[in-house]
Amino acid sequence: MAPSARELLTRLAPDFPARHVGELYDDTTEFMRIGYGDVMVLGERHFLVLRDEAERRFGMEDPKYWVKRCRCLETGGRNIVKLVFHENFPMTIGSMVVTCTRSPRKETRILDLVRGDPRFMQGETIYDAADNPVRILDLVAGKRLDEKIEALEMPHRDYFHDLFPTVLERFIEACQAIKWLHDRNEKHGDVRRDHLYVLHDSGQYCWIDFDYTFDFQESPFGLDLFGLGNIIQFLVGMGQHTTQSISPALRAQITSDDCSIMFPNRIVNLQKLFPYIPLEMTNVLRRFSLAAEVYYDTAGELIDDLCRARQALGRNGI
Questions:
Q1: Which phi and psi angles does 91 have, rounded to 5°?
Q2: Which InterPro entries does the annotation name (predicted)?
Q3: Which end of the chain is less congested by CB atoms within 10 angstroms, N or C?
């Protein structure tokens, strides 16, 4: 007879409060039922659930009930455990519609592909008793890039001259990691600024979360590229700039052509706010604007233009 959760925790985690001991699950299909104090049986290991994970976006907490912060009872290590949750939804980019789908098996494939590559989060997939592909992820020893940028307390000019060249170099390396996936006919699927971390030990940028895929008829990898565009806008601007956040005097100079094709209130022609941004960088940003007539087809094209922008920073003595 399999041990109960109470027996397991008494033996492997005697410090855990007895009053919070839950149930034992080897089938994780009903993930909403699994919570704090429950134990998941995955292969030869047992994972004590500590809490549901959540994403903080637009100033709000978005709970992810299928993603659990856990402690492995055998090793004592902490892991993120992602259970199976399927969803799909349309995304509109200008006049184009992209169908996005959450695919646990696609994320399993990517985790196998990037094993040992520090540019990507690491983990493995174990199938539960109901054959659900449960992804057991290592915690990323780093901090979100956007949070590090937002925490800076300095004028934009100083940031752009002193820090941004290094930020850009590392972001180019992160773009090369996405190109590496594309060259193998794979997509990240959910390229966002909160999915890019800075590793504490090396300063290298590391991508997380690969469980989305998308069907974009106009461009096989287009959604990844637009995601990279959103991030570079944020990095160049040292944060997000919208038509609502700027002064009335500056707002009078902004037209719809200066704004993002994905988020029409976000300003991408940042040279109008910061005139010292070189033309080479402005040309990159405007490829993601409502005025753009040509978009990037490949990550390689974007990387080439970003490298030219980096060289322009050097020519300007930055």
A1: -125, 135
A2: Kinase-like_dom_sf
A3: N
Q: What was the pLDDT predicted at 57?
A: 65
- Predicted pLDDT of residue 219: 85
> How far apart are the C-alpha atoms of 280 and 289, rounded to whole Å?
15
CA-wise closest residue to 302 among 247, 222, 235, 201: 222
Among the listed residues 101, 44, 102, the one whose alpha carbon sits nearest the alpha carbon of residue 74: 44
Residues 6+ apart with CB under 8 A from 239: 149, 150
Domains assigned to the chain: 9-83 (no CATH), 142-315 (1.10.510.10)
Residue 59 has what pLDDT?
61
183-194 exposure pattern, b = at least 16 Cβ within 10 A, e = fewer: eeebbbbbbbbb
Per-residue confidence (pLDDT) for residue 141, from 0 to 100: 96
DSSP letters spanning 265-286: TBB--GGGT-TTS-HHHHHHHH
